[in-house]
Structures are given as structure tokens and as C-alpha cells.
Amino acid sequence: MKILADENMPYVQELFGDLGTIETVNGRELTSEQVKDADVLLVRSVTQVNESLLGLNCKLKFVGSATIGTDHIDTDYLASRDIPFSNAPGCNATAVGEFAFIAMLELINRFGGKLRDKTVGIVGAGNTGSAVAKCLEAYDVTVLLHDPVIQGSDPRDFIPLDELIARCDVISLHVPITKTGEHKTWYLFDEVRLNSLQQGTWLLNCCRGEVIDNRALIKIKQVRPDIKVVLDVWEGEPNPMHELIPLVELATPHIAGYSLEGKARGTYMLYQKLMQILGKDADKSMKSLLPALWSAQLDIESIPSEKSLLQLTRFIYDLRDDDELFRKTILDNSSKNAQVNYDNNNGFDLMRKNHKHRREFSALRLVNTGQSDVNWLSNLGFSGVGQ
């Protein structure tokens, strides 16, 4: 069996190695010629899986995408050819939730105020949006939700988008990209909606770049510096608009979900599905893939402020490092290159490929040495709290 896998997917050899021959490829540049003799295709969001890519292949048994979204997959075409497909819903939800929470703490540290005094609106209340809400609610932050797609079948309370914009100090975006239909999300935040943001609003996008009209955002930010923006995703990836980057408070290369746990979970979910299709037992565990947990003694009284909490989260993941690297890689490299058609492809994707240092809160085992209530830390996701 030949298994073709994106070179940026971790733990493929460990999980799939005894099933056949593994060949890793650049997912963004994958061709139909490379795919024609594959039995299994494992991709990420940078690969468009459609008839053009698979037209030469007559033996494909499974297509897996280690992603939450499926907008890069022509599922109708796969179904027409009876090719089983699976994605990995929720695999990196915890990572995205913690990324957004940390980004908010960073903005508090930079601009003042208290996160607990903010009202945060979450647009898109699926796996990732719910993970953001979980972190915020653990920290007693008021959360409002907007999601017209699921509100009819979900017991939580939802409000219209314009009401959310009017009531919220922070807006965090977690929707799939849909270009047509009643609930279209392409340019959901266009120039009109961006202009309607309340004074001092913080806007975070950790889903898809085109949910925000980036050119309109440039225009708005030039006259409204009161709006603070965190962008992990960019219109036109892997070539973000250079003029937007200096206007953004925190900028990263689509790595909000790139924790070791999240990436391992995505690959592992595809392994489980393929083993099911092959009628075999999934006898490997995800826990065996990951490094051991860190441990630290914690006196709860040592984190009396949000600044102290930020310092604790920075021990797990310092968002400033990726922000600095992004600006240096994209802006500095392009300014040194005199060619008009400078290609950020290598820089943007290389940062994603090399992003292997980040862990989730659960990687840190905290031992409470005092008598204070530590349940909120446990609810945030830290391990060993209260034990």
C-alpha cells in the first residue's frame, strides 16, 4: 500500500508506517502525477482535493484531511467515486481556544484593562468557538454567541451578529468559509461591518482569512487605530497583503491550531478511520506519540493578576515569538527582494512546517501548594490541579 502524506503532518510514520510505504510531499504543490498510484492520500488545508488532482488515480482507498474544515475537499466528487473520506473535526479546537485566550491576555498586557471586564463575542460556536468560550468562561469572562447554522439545534443562547457587534468589546471569529447561501461567511466582515465596530473593539480571526475583507481592513485601520486586530489567517495565503501586517497588533502564519497535541490528534483521527475502513484494530495510542508532561510547583497566590496568568501561559506558549518571526520573515525578506513578484510561499509555509515547539495547557502539570481554589485553572485545561 502506498501512502502519500503532506510533509507537515506529524507522526505519520509512527502511525501508518507498518501499513505500507509512506511518501511525503509538499501539499501546496501536489500534482495529479504524484497522486496517480497512491492508495491513501493524507492532506491538510493547503491541498485542493478534486477531480483535477485525482483524475489519474484509479486505486485510491481513502482520503483523509487532518483539518477541521473541508472547503478544500470536493466531497461530492469523492462520493461519486465511492472514495471514503474523513477529516478531523475538533482535532485542534483546544489549541485554537488557548491561542485566542492568550492573544487576549497579550492585548490586555499591552493596552491595559482587565479581561474579566470585557464582553467577548464569538462568531461561530462549533468546536473551535466553543473551545474559546470554555477558556473565557473558566476565567469568568462574559461570552455572547452568534451562529445561525447551529442555533436551532443547540440549547445555548445566541444573538444576531449586529447585536453582538454592538454589545461586545472583543469579537473572535471561528466560522468555516462559505461563498454562497443564506449564511455566507466570505467577507462576512466587509467594509460596512468593520466600520460598525464599537470604539476600541478587538477583532480576532483564527478561522479563514477571507472572512474579513483584508483590503477594507487596511482602509479602516488607517483611520481607526482604536480597533485592535489579531490575525492568524490572511486573505490570499500564503501571500498576505504586506501593507496590512504593520497595522495588525498580533500576526501569525495560520498556526493557531498548531499545538503538538492538536496536530497529533488530527493525524491520529485519520489513523483510526483508516484502520476502521481496513477492518483492523487501531492498536496505537496517541499518548505514546507525545513528549512527557512538564511539572511545576504552583502557589496559587503567586498569580494574583492577569499579568501573572499571562506569564504562566507564556511558559507554555509565547505568542510574541511567532508574531516577531512572522513580521521578520514576511516583511524583511520581501523588502530585501527587488523582484515585484516576490513569493512568500516558502516563508509562510516554512514557518508552519517548522512550528513544532508549542504545547497546550494540559502539558503543564500544576501542583497546588496552598489552600486557594484552583478549579478555574483546571477548567482552563492545566493538568494535575487540585490533585
From TrEMBL:
Involved pathway(s): Cofactor biosynthesis; pyridoxine 5'-phosphate biosynthesis; pyridoxine 5'-phosphate from D-erythrose 4-phosphate: step 2/5
UniProt-listed Enzyme Commission number(s): 1.1.1.290
Keywords: Cytoplasm, NAD, Oxidoreductase, Pyridoxine biosynthesis
Segments forming domain Erythronate-4-phosphate dehydrogenase dimerisation: 289-381
Every D-isomer specific 2-hydroxyacid dehydrogenase NAD-binding domain range: 112-256
Gene Ontology BP annotations: pyridoxine biosynthetic process
GO molecular function: 4-phosphoerythronate dehydrogenase activity; glyoxylate reductase (NADPH) activity; hydroxypyruvate reductase [NAD(P)H] activity; NAD binding; protein dimerization activity
Binding site for substrate: S45, T67, Y258
Residue ranges constituting the D-isomer specific 2-hydroxyacid dehydrogenase catalytic domain according to the UniProt record: 8-277
EC class (word): oxidoreductase
Lyase keyword on record: no
Chief location category: cytoplasm
Subunit structure as annotated in this protein's UniProt entry: Homodimer.
Function: Catalyzes the oxidation of erythronate-4-phosphate to 3-hydroxy-2-oxo-4-phosphonooxybutanoate.
Protein name from the UniProt record: Erythronate-4-phosphate dehydrogenase
Protein species of origin: Shewanella psychrophila
Gene: pdxB
